[in-house]
UniProtKB/TrEMBL annotation:
<feature type="transmembrane region" description="Helical">
    <location>
        <begin position="116"/>
        <end position="147"/>
    </location>
</feature>
<keyword id="KW-1133">Transmembrane helix</keyword>
<feature type="region of interest" description="Disordered">
    <location>
        <begin position="25"/>
        <end position="62"/>
    </location>
</feature>
<dbReference type="InterPro" id="IPR019109">
    <property type="entry name" value="MamF_MmsF"/>
</dbReference>
<feature type="transmembrane region" description="Helical">
    <location>
        <begin position="72"/>
        <end position="96"/>
    </location>
</feature>
<keyword id="KW-0812">Transmembrane</keyword>
<keyword id="KW-0472">Membrane</keyword>
<dbReference type="Pfam" id="PF09685">
    <property type="entry name" value="MamF_MmsF"/>
</dbReference>
<protein>
    <recommendedName>
        <fullName>Orotate phosphoribosyltransferase</fullName>
    </recommendedName>
</protein>
């Protein structure tokens, strides 16, 4: 039985073969070689002097298209209507911050309004002991519903909406 030695130099330069030599006996199968297809043309048929691909992860957020900004702005105003309160505009603002000035403004506006409504509901709930709280809760509920619908309609027209009687806590 004859022993043959093969070194990593026998393999292509891009191979991931260990640095130690491989022992092959004559009655064993020879080691399989990995074949690599190397292309001289760039991917997607572009020339080498064309524009580079977009930056990879960590290069910063890509700005939103206007239709995406409008959709998320509408959702920032509508989602509190289905019971998500200040959570929906907060999440939208945190996720899309810096990706579009319109969406950022409308999410902050909705967040400020929802915080103001929450404060008014807490005060109204406490004042139900004196029976004035029931009136406050009714006015706040109807007012919030009307103003949120008006804000959603304004956002669907891509208009900058500003809620009246709102504490501007988030700048």
């Amino acid at each position: 039985m004859q022993t043959l030695w093969t070194t990593p130099n026998d393999y292509p330069a891009t191979s991931t073969v260990a640095a130690s030599p491989i022992r092959v006996t004559s009655d064993a199968h020879p080691p399989t070689r990995r074949r690599y297809l190397v292309s001289t043309t760039p991917p997607n048929g572009q020339g080498w002097d064309s524009a580079p691909p977009p930056p990879a992860y960590g290069a910063g957020p890509q700005p939103l298209r206007p239709d995406e900004e409008k959709m998320w702005a509408i959702l920032a105003h509508v989602l509190p209507l289905i019971g998500l309160g200040f959570i929906a505009p907060l999440v939208i603002w945190l996720v899309f911050r810096g990706r579009g000035p319109y969406l950022e403004n409308q999410a902050k506006e909705s967040l400020n309004f929802q915080i103001t409504v929450l404060i008014a509901v807490v005060v109204g709930s406490i004042l139900t002991i004196v029976l004035v709280g029931f009136v406050i809760l009714a006015v706040v509920g109807i007012g919030a519903l009307v103003l949120e619908i008006m804000a959603a309609v304004a956002a669907s027209r891509f208009e900058w909406y500003r809620y009246p009687l709102t504490l501007r806590l988030v700048k």
